[in-house]
Design brief:
The chain has about 80 residues and is mostly beta strands. It has strands at about 5, 10-15, 20-25, 30-35, 45-55, 60-70, 75, 80-85. About 0% of the residues lie in helices and about 55% in strands. The strands form three sheets. It has a three-stranded antiparallel beta sheet with strand order 1-8-4, with no helix packed on it. Strand 5 and strand 6 form a beta hairpin.
Length: about 80
């Protein structure tokens, strides 16, 4: 079994409020074994959720949603999936 790390697209957390989402998807035939995200400066953003996506018995990716902190500085991040073949 081999492991592959897959990055989702960059998402920019808006300075004025709201949230941003990035999803990293495993290639077909792979199994999700974990996930996370490239951390922005913790003073600039808060994680709303960081969780597996897809069916509960066979998740296919990792989704991360973040919101800005009071600092109001826009920052970028991306979700990361750990996939096994």
């Amino acid at each position: 079994m081999t492991t592959e790390f897959v990055n989702g697209p960059d998402a920019t957390i808006p300075a004025g409020g709201g949230t941003a989402t990035s999803v990293a998807s495993c290639p077909p035939g792979s199994v999700l074994t974990g996930g996370g995200f490239s951390p922005p400066n913790p003073l600039d953003a808060t994680v709303v959720s960081s969780e597996a996506t897809g069916p509960a018995q066979a998740p296919t990716g990792w989704q991360v949603i973040m919101r800005p902190n009071v600092s109001g500085i826009p920052t970028s991040f991306h979700a990361q999936a750990v996939c096994a073949h």
